Amino acid sequence: MAQVQIAAPPEINKKKANRALLASMVGSSIEWFDFFLYGSMAALVFNKLYFPSDDPIVGLLLAYMSFGLSFFIRPLGGIVFSHIGDKIGRKKTLMLTLMLMGGATVLIGLLPDYNAIGIWAPILLVFLRLCQGLGIGGEWGGSVLLAVEYSSKKNRGFFGSIPQLGVPVGMLLGTVAISLLSNLPEEQFLSWGWRLPFILSAVLIIVGLWIRKGIEETPVFQEAKESGDIAKMPLVDTFRYHWKSVFITAGAKFVETSPYYIFATFVIAYATGYLGYQTSTVLNAVAIANLVTIFMIPLMGKLSDKVGRKPLYIGGTIAMLLFAFPYFYLLSLQSAIWLTVATIIAIGIIWAPLEAVMGTMFSEIFSTNIRYTGISVGNQLGAAVFGGTTPMVALALLNAFNDSWVPVALYIVAACIISLISLFAIREGKNLDL
């Protein structure tokens, strides 16, 4: 009976699916734009205005620590919002996460600095950053499932890749905004210029909420609800029956999250502070690489519908492992061209297939009644261990080993090895029914 109720004319289904796809991508892009703004500003602004110190390295470490702290709160966001998503629905959850993320971002843009309110400035900044972490922790799983659960078996990989565009689109928007503002005189940039993208993101949030308000709940969740297959305690059921899958998902996440924060966030401080690159040169390289990624991700998603998710993910992991040392060598040549080439290869070519198939691959591991909880907790757990802490760990390794990049490259290699081990335990889900 549930199957009859869900069925609809193909053109109506297609319209609903396309709107859901747009909602998942737009909302995800806005939230990652807000999220990455903080990561970029940590190296350019927050170390000076909110964590002032006689030693600039200490100020930068504190700023990166505030960036990394949000990753430890992301699993909590995943737990809270995935509980709502698995009990009530994906749509309501995505409205809440977007409002939480957007509100915290706008308030960061309005927050007085250390000279104005003293110790309250870093305390409030960290609090708002934690609110961002809660929001993004619940957003990712919902946006992925909104797309995946509206897809068919034949195009699931492509649909699942679209919300993953949120990461490069958000990073690209953030990088372009900062690159334009960095042309201001330093005094004006530090005084008011850096605040503009945080405050103006309110407009994007309103647009995102309007788009998401017009979507319906996913057919897969509707069917589960009508049949009564809703978990009473999704988190309890997830760790009782699927705890191995959660940890396998977290391990597979390492290779996608840790290298990206080195290539897109840590590189800003490393290339400008240690290698003498201009800030605009580094930001432009990251922007170009993310632009390439925006085209690559849907292509890789389509390819995964033919060859499977696992082969692409394993191939990307091995390529990432092999490129860790060449990446830093190319940066050490202190050439803007080689910096750009290295960044395009790392993000646009190697990282793209990982990002494209990750959400779909994780979704195919868990059953509908705990799917939101399973992929959210596993993903955010992996991000907490090998994600936001990466810039801080990389900076600490540089200072501990006399500015040598070799330990940082080995850190990437370690993430790749752990992910490869995890991938052996994941079954290919291309032909599975959700």
TrEMBL record:
It comes from the Bacteria. The keyword Membrane applies. Its main location: membrane. Keywords: Cell membrane, Membrane, Symport, Transmembrane, Transmembrane helix, Transport. SUPFAM superfamilies: MFS general substrate transporter (SSF103473). The keyword Membrane applies. GO terms for molecular function: symporter activity. It is a multi-pass membrane protein. It is found in: Cell membrane. InterPro entries: MFS, MFS_dom, MFS_trans_sf, Sugar_transporter_CS. This is Putative proline/betaine transporter. It comes from Paenibacillus naphthalenovorans.
